[in-house]
Amino acid sequence: MTSAPSGNAVSDSRLTIRPVRIEDYDDVRRITRDAYLEAGYFTDEAHPYVAVLSDIEHRAEHAEVWVAERDGVIVVYRCPDLRRPAVYGHRRRR
């Protein structure tokens, strides 16, 4: 893997891993929603907690959010918990 010219991204011939950008938010929202629905945590995307999970703006404001993209398409993201950096996802602080 090599650093991209920006110095913040890492890429190889298949994936680029970089900090999230505003234009990625809809993809991150889609990935989050689909993952929880497909895993069976919720049966309806109208469930109130799906809105919390989809609040990428809040997560990006309070934690580092990284995405992996392949051929210009976001395929996965990671947002460490603010209290436990090794944990995937995010818990809203009160």
SS class: alpha+beta
Total domain modules? 1
CATH-derived architecture = 3-Layer(aba) Sandwich
What is the share of helical residues? 25-40%
- Poorly predicted segments: 84-94
The CATH topology turns out to be Aminopeptidase
Task: Please characterize this protein's 3D structure.
- The N and C termini lie far apart (38 Å).
- The chain has a single domain (9-78), classed as Aminopeptidase (3-Layer(aba) Sandwich).
- The protein is built from 3 helices and 5 strands.
- A hairpin with a 6-residue loop joins strand 1 (2-3) and strand 2 (10-11).
- 29% of the residues lie in helices and 20% in strands.
- The chain is α+β, with helices and mostly antiparallel strands and 94 residues long.
Brief rundown of the structure:
This protein is of the alpha+beta class and 94 residues long. The protein has a single domain (9-78), classed as 3-Layer(aba) Sandwich (Aminopeptidase). The protein is 29% helix and 20% strand.
